[in-house]
Amino acid sequence: MLAxxxxxxxxxxxxxxxxxxPVEVRTPDDLNVVDALVLPGGESTTMSFLxxxxxxxxxxxxxxxxxxxxxxxxxxxxLLATEVLDGRPDQxxxxxxxxxxxxxxxxRQRDSFEADLDVEGLAGGRFHxxxxxxxxxxxxxxxxxxxxxxxxxxxxxxxxxxxxxSFHPELSDDLRLHQLFLExxxx
Length: 187
Known about the structure:
Strand order of the largest sheet: 1-2-10-9-8
CATH superfamily: Class I glutamine amidotransferase (GATase) domain
Radius of gyration: 15 Å
Number of strands: 10
Number of helices: 6
Strand content: 25-35%
Number of domains: 1
Largest sheet: 5 strands, mixed
CATH architecture: 3-Layer(aba) Sandwich
Helix content: 25-40%
Shape: globular
Order of helices and strands: HHEHHEHEEEEEEEEH
Distance between the termini: 19 Å
CATH topology: Rossmann fold
């Protein structure tokens, strides 16, 4: 669990409820003891800055390049993307999933919303999603599978061992997306 900034506690609670033993990653040494990483929602430019100031960017990039599973939600999706639109010019992404993401694509805080999504391959299908200043995907690469969309824009995608959502699954009572990530991580 990347714990530099953002909504870490709800993710920790969900992962613990599913039987995982989440570790809050703040340093390169913390990163060395995890098998996978959840990158939470928060403020993507601040998180990007903190990746640099904590010394985590290079070791995290190396782990992702080596195939470490990752689940990015909202700002975490932005950090894992190949390209970020409407970000700061100096904002670097981790290039872990071949998508182009637009920050705050659905609008400002007052434009936050909830929606029931049809999720491809998720047992039980529909998932209640909470969108807060959410990004959406404008472009997907060949190896990216779109699992859910809103108004024609992908909001849940997977490529290999990387899963990203523009919404906050940790804010619902539905544990299935975290369970999906844990199952894929174990595979």
